């Protein structure tokens, strides 16, 4: 049974993100409750020591305090989430950009250089498999180049032996030249 690898984000990074998200949500809730309690206490205290008692319900009395405390906490939580999201974006985008540039380099036929990512990058497994593929392709194209050169040498030797098959020899030479130019187009 083949074991599939997941290349996008490792489980540890997912767990850290979920933990941070949950922690910030809980802290935001605690901050909202604390801010509301503080503001409500100040409002009730000021109403109790005033000369007259307003004729409004407690909900209406504390409406502005609830609104201010929740807006403050929402603003604070959004800033923290933005900072966390930016950190996650940078953690993923940097290695992806490096992988993209290296894949473009490989697509042009340059298989000599390996993809080098930092030890803790999320796409390290993927980069290692791309390096293995690049190494294998490099070896195969070198073998093709050597085989093409050997075919050219063999065709040149046959050229002198069988002059009656000049048309067939021309065809072999033409195919060898095509193979050789295809293989030479890769940067090995």
Which word captures the global form? Answer: rod-shaped
Query: Any low-confidence stretches, pLDDT <50, length ≥5?
Result: none
Alpha-beta classification: mainly alpha
The tally of beta strands, per DSSP, is 0
Helix content class: over 70%
Structural domain count: 2
Which features characterize this protein?
188 residues, 2 domains
Concise summary:
This protein has 188 residues and is an all-alpha fold. The chain has five helices and no strands.
Describe this structure in words.
The chain is mostly helical. It has two domains: 8-107, no CATH class; 111-188. Helices cover 77% and strands 0% of the residues. It is built from five helices and no strands. The longest helix is centred in the middle third of the chain and has 45 residues, at 63-107.
Write the layout of secondary structure elements.
Elements: H1 11-48, H2 58-61, H3 63-107, H4 124-161, H5 166-184
Helix pairs in contact: 1-3, 3-4, 4-5
